Amino acid sequence: MIIESFVTSLSSFSITAILRFAKSTQPAIFKTGQLTPIRDLKLLVKDYPPIATSALTILINISSDLEILKSLAEDNVFLESVLNRITNPKETNATLLSMLLSNLAKSDSFERLLSLNRSTIRTLTSTATNAFDQLLDLFNRGISGSYNLSSKFEYLPYLFADLAKFPTVSEHLISTANASDPPLLTTLTPHTSPPSLPLPLRLGTSSTIRNALLSLPSPLTAIPPMIPHILPSLLLPLIGPDAAFSDSENDLLPPELQLLGPEHKQEDNLQVLHYLVECFFLICARGGEEAVKGVRKMGGYAVLREVHVGVEDEGVRENVERVVQLLMGDEVENDREMVGASKGELGFLAEGKDEEEREEADDEDEKIVEIF
User: Which sign, positive or negative, has the C-alpha torsion 341, 346, 351, 354?
Assistant: First the structure.
């Protein structure tokens, strides 16, 4: 069988031929001999670029299998090898490594990235000593294409989004030593727009913000102070070219949003729009009355009203209505049930959706990147 020749040969021909199995067959063929092919593929990731490219492509495509995912995600030696390679400015497979890491973040074991101590990376000019912060620095340095000419690391936000579901990570992203300091999350918020940015970048970024707000543990005192830091980036992609703001409403908007030119475009992906509107709901519902006032003072109501008018999607409109109910209420109920709610229990994240919509949202969160 071709799989048998593959596991005993490192030739370019063998690994290229085996690619078709990753694309068209169940991952079972890679689980023979107690995952011997997976162990070989891990080694081939370190081979010269054409071989490594094929090995990474296979691993990305079969990492949805839980047994294979466990073997990859919980292997500390393999993880360290991947981290070393992806942070190398000359790594030609950096985008594939980003995709693989984003898939491996589906494993709960990846929460350890936050506590995984590593040596500082000289080329990143960063003082970060844990794997999570190093990847965040890598993304922010690399998104312009200047750090590694072969990659912009646009798939890394998918990794951040999955890890933001952990309270430890969300607290790390949102909490600050001083209330006046911008939270770490603000390093991601500029990438919510414009729509010309790659979709994985916008989806991953908006999902990271949403998940961090949802999983942030009590007490939630960190939410109101961060509103001035993150709200402009959440409002910008929601504003359309035909938004009808009054002069007083326009004056409430952050200065950088008051004079948008005709070239500005509203976000056109419905899933990104859903995530952004959910961010507003979570800020208001979990941040309490102070957070609601903060959103009002920055023109949040007028922007959401225009989204309701201009976006012809019933799901988005229903979600906006739920946020507006909080913004227009005389008082905000911030009881324990609301503050402590988990995903699936908080407002329109569950109650306003039927079973099919909930499954679609869950599928989007659990999506594995594939290469065909």
Answer: negative
Number of H helices, E strands in the chain: 18, 0
Query: What are the DSSP calls for 123-188, one per residue?
Result: GGT----BHHHHHHHHHHHHTTSSS-TT---TTHHHHHHHHTTSHHHHHHHH--SSTTSPPGGGGT
First to last CA, the chain: 23
User: Letter for the amino acid at 343?
Assistant: K
Going by the DSSP 8-state scheme, the letter that residue 244 receives in this structure is -
Helix (H) or strand (E) holding 197: none
The answer for residues whose C-beta is within 8 angstroms of residue 87's C-beta and 6 or more apart is 121, 123, 124, 134, 138
What is the distance between the alpha carbons of residues 370 and 353, in angstroms, rounded to a whole number?
28
Chain segment 228-274, per-residue pLDDT in tens: 999 999 999 999 988 889 999 999 999 999 988 888 899 999 999 99
pLDDT confidence of residue 366: 62
Residue with tokens 């009808």: 244
Cα–Cα distance, 289 to 337 (Å, whole number): 16
* Across 175-196, average pLDDT: 86
Query: What does the pLDDT average to over 12-26?
Result: 64
Tokens of 226: 């961060």
* DSSP assignment string, 50-85: HHHHHHHHHHHHHTTSHHHHHHHHT-HHHHHHHHHH
User: What six digits make up the tokens of 21?
Assistant: 């199995």
Contact 296, 326 (CB under 8 A): no
Give the integer Cα–Cα distance in Å for 292 and 227.
10
| Bond from prior residue into 27 cis (ω within 30 degrees of 0) | no
Q: Is 335 helix (H, G, I), strand (E, B) or coil?
A: coil
Beta-carbon contacts of residue 329 (< 8 Å; ≥ 6 apart)? 292
